[in-house]
């Protein structure tokens, strides 16, 4: 069975002008709106990050688009996505802890408990990958071919990379939508 993850896409904020291209002024603004909603009978203020890019108007000039209030629909979609990101982070931490617990239970590893406890998620994946590749008893199992082990560790790598993006990056709405 083949699995593919839908990974976040990084949008570069600053673009480099191609060599020989004419200079065009551009400005960027990051704004934070506050969306107020009720959760469990409490009023909760949630930040929504918005990224605006100016429209180049020739050499050394740019026009900033009119900053318009977010619609209720856009704000709710943003907050739903933020909620999904929160669930992804929570689930990935549970997987991280399960992987650490699994590695702590494997006697054949050449790592101390202290070393394993200090490892981050990606390093734990590396130790697990090395274990799967070198442990001969598991290689005799029909459900653990070298290709399956490689696919498993590859998807774990992508999952942890995505988790790091979700955990450490900021989700922004780009406005206006047609300006890149």
Describe this structure in words.
It is elongated, with a radius of gyration of 23 Å. The relative contact order is 0.16. The protein is α+β, with helices and mostly antiparallel strands and 180 residues long. A 3-stranded mixed sheet has the order 1-2-5. Strands 3-4 form a two-stranded antiparallel ribbon. The two termini are 38 Å apart. A hairpin with a 2-residue loop joins β1 (28-39) and β2 (42-53). It has helices spanning 72-105, 113-118, 121-134, 136-139, 146-168; strands spanning 28-39, 42-53, 55-56, 62-63, 172-175.
Secondary structure elements and pairings:
Elements: E1 28-39, E2 42-53, E3 55-56, E4 62-63, H1 72-105, H2 113-118, H3 121-134, H4 136-139, H5 146-168, E5 172-175
Parallel strand pairs: 2-5
Antiparallel strand pairs: 1-2, 3-4
What key attributes describe this structure?
180 residues, elongated, 5 strands, alpha+beta
Summarize the model shown.
Helices cover 45% and strands 18% of the residues. By secondary structure, the chain is α+β, with helices and mostly antiparallel strands.
**Share of residues in strands:** 15-25%
Number of domains: 1
Q: Strands across the major sheet, in which order? A: 1-2-5
Radius of gyration: 23 Å
Sheet with the most strands, sense and barrel status: 3 strands, mixed
The helix count comes to 5
Order of helices and strands: EEEEHHHHHE
């Amino acid at each position: 069975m083949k699995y593919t993850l839908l990974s976040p896409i990084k949008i570069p904020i600053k673009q480099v002008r191609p060599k020989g291209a004419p200079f065009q002024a551009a400005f960027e603004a990051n704004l934070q709106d506050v969306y107020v909603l009720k959760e469990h009978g409490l009023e909760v203020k949630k930040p929504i990050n918005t990224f605006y890019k100016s429209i180049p108007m020739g050499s050394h000039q740019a026009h900033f688009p009119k900053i318009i209030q977010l619609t209720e629909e856009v704000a709710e979609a943003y907050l739903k996505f933020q909620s999904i990101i929160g669930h992804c982070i929570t689930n990935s931490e549970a997987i991280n802890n399960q992987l650490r617990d699994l590695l702590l239970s494997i006697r054949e590893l050449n790592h101390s408990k202290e070393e394993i406890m200090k490892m981050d998620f990606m390093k734990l994946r590396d130790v697990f990958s090395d274990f799967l590749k070198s442990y001969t008893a598991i290689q005799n199992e029909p459900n653990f071919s070298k290709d399956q082990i490689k696919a498993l560790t590859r998807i774990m790598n992508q999952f942890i990379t995505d988790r790091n993006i979700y955990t450490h990056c900021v989700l922004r709405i780009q406005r206006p939508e047609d300006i890149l």
